[in-house]
Amino acid sequence: MKLNLDLKIPSKPEWLAAVLDDFDSFLQDHADCERKASSMAMSFVAKYPDRLEIIPDLIETGIEELEHFQQVYKLMRSRGISLRSSMGEDVYVSRLIKQCHSGREERFMDRLLIASALETRGAERFRLIAEALDQEELKSFYKMLWISEAKHGHIFVKMALNYFPEQTVYDRLDWWMKREAEVLDQLPIRPALH
Question: Which of 79, 133, 158, 171 is the 20 to 30 Å CA partner of 55?
Answer without folding.
Answer: 171
